[in-house]
Design a protein that fits this description.
The chain is α+β, with helices and mostly antiparallel strands and about 170 residues long. Helices cover about 30% and strands about 30% of the residues. The chain has 5 helices and 7 strands.
Length: about 170
């Protein structure tokens, strides 16, 4: 059974192994994130409560997708949208560890995140993906995503596709 859990020391080693799998994908993890797992857990807990936020950041709740004691991925649900998030980032960002991709976990983490967003009082969720990321687009559409528009990016980055989902 899969479930979302807040970051916890219970899954510390397993989470570290998941992050290790992402080392070839540095764009997946925030640049400002603590590398020490204990500090990371405090950092995420504070952010969910709107405490100790870096300048320009907004409150966000983070959860780990766990199945049979294994951390499969992570999702962050931003409680509101800044102008940048409204055009590029959206309410929800997630990753699945590479060894677990293409097995339905992306669809499930988003489905569970939408339930959490509803619990946070977010009635309409904006979620984005690169126009080149067909797998992510399919996950969003499978969860009820309605295409709004494509946003042009700078420096040769792929355009962003913006979708809305009712919770």
């Amino acid at each position: 059974m899969m479930k979302l859990v807040p970051p916890s020391r219970q899954y510390k080693e397993n989470y570290a192994a998941a992050v290790e799998e992402l080392q070839d994908e540095p764009h997946t993890l925030e640049e400002k994130r603590p590398t020490d797992i204990n500090e990371y857990i405090v950092w995420r807990t504070d952010h969910a409560q709107g405490k100790n936020l870096p300048e320009g950041w907004i409150p966000a709740s983070t959860f780990w997708l766990v199945e049979s004691g294994i951390v499969v991925g992570e999702v962050s649900i931003r409680h509101e949208l800044t102008e940048f998030l409204r055009t590029v980032g959206g309410h929800i960002g997630y990753w699945i560890r590479p060894s677990k991709r293409r097995q339905g976990y992306g669809k499930e983490i988003l489905r569970l995140a939408l339930q959490q967003a509803k619990n946070l009082g977010i009635a309409q969720v904006l979620i984005t993906c690169d126009e080149t990321n067909d797998a992510s687009r399919k996950i969003i559409e499978a969860n009820g995503g309605i295409f709004e528009k494509m946003t042009e990016m700078e420096n040769g980055q792929p355009c962003k596709l913006l979708f809305w989902i009712q919770t």
